[in-house]
Amino acid sequence: MTNMQLPKIIGRFMFDSITTSFSYKGNKMFSAVYRNPKNGIKMTIFTFFDEQLDKQTFGIKVKGSTIRGVQSFDRVIEVANTIVEENDSFLADDE
User: Fold this and answer.
1) Residue 75 belongs to a domain
2) What residues form DSSP beta bridges with 67?
3) Residue 36 lies in a domain
4) Is the confidence at residue 7, as pLDDT, over 70?
5) In terms of residue numbers, what domain contains 36?
6) Alpha-carbon gap, residue 93 to 79, rounded angstroms
7) Rounded distance, CA 12 to CA 10, Å?
8) Against a cut of 0.85, is the pTM above it?
9) Domain-embedded: residue 1
10) Number of structural domains found in the chain
11) Sign of the dihedral through C-alpha 49, 19, 60, 73
């Protein structure tokens, strides 16, 4: 893993835990869970290794839907922020 520093907060989602962490072909594989403390919605940022391409990529899972094939760690964090910004209505705090 090159200098990948998981942010503590993405929008209103707070870092919760690393649920998986191991190495494969020199790549740091992980799965990090973020939660919205107001409504319990979970967002997971994870690594994915494509054997055919012999390459690590990144993905995000929110509410049962997955975006994968993100090419860099920095970009997956940008994608996570975009998801939160564009979906404020269903990711917002329950009131």
Assistant:
1) yes
2) 60
3) yes
4) yes
5) 9-87
6) 20
7) 6
8) yes
9) no
10) 1
11) negative
Q: Do 73 and 7 touch, CB atoms closer than 8 A?
A: no
Strand order in the sheet with 13-24: 9-10, 13-24, 27-35, 42-50, 55-62, 65-70
13: burial class by Cβ within 10 Å (0-12, 13-18, 19+)?
Answer: buried
79 within some domain: yes
List, for residues 18-60, the tens digit of each pLDDT value.
999 999 999 999 999 999 998 899 999 999 999 999 999 999 9
CB 17 within 8 A of CB 24: no
Q: What DSSP letter does each residue of 8-36 carry, written as one string?
A: SEETTEEEEEEEEEEEETTEEEEEEEEE-
Nearest to residue 13, comparing CAs of 31, 32, 37? 37
